[in-house]
Amino acid sequence: MDSDFEHLRHKPPTVLDKPRDLIIACCPMRSNVNVSRIVRAASCCAVSKVIVCGNVKIDPKIARDGAEKIPISKHRSLAPVLRDYKKEGYTLVGLEQTTNSHDIHHFAFVRKTILVIGNERLGITEEILSLLDATVEIPVYGMPYSYNAATATCMALYEFCRQFPGG
After folding, report:
1. Cα 139 to Cα 20: distance, rounded to the nearest angstrom
2. pTM over 0.85
3. In the predicted model, what is the mean pLDDT of residues 2-31?
């Protein structure tokens, strides 16, 4: 064994100078656990904001530091919010399996993106789908046909960060 080789268990994280131009927008979700996991992952990826709808409660034990560090914007309805951001030049990308969805492995994100996450059972509504610029899906190799909403969001966040490692 090489005596010069050392494992660092908790090396300091890479911290960006400012949050990314990436926003997560969640359709009304059934599970506060999923939303809390999304908030935690969004914080790890330096997302600038998380938009939530409906009666959402973020569990600080699950979201951990994310609940305190990332702005969370609560709204009654998602469509008007997305329309406003679209006017500001954001690209709206839904994480959803649709007829024209792109395989996430071959999709080029733009920096100024809102990643829209659908309801765990119902997905993204027709109203919201009509506002999107694109949809991406994550290939599934077994059953069921899709990943859990929070898990899929983590994968999509990772891919966005891979494409824009410096922010």
Report:
1. 26
2. yes
3. 83
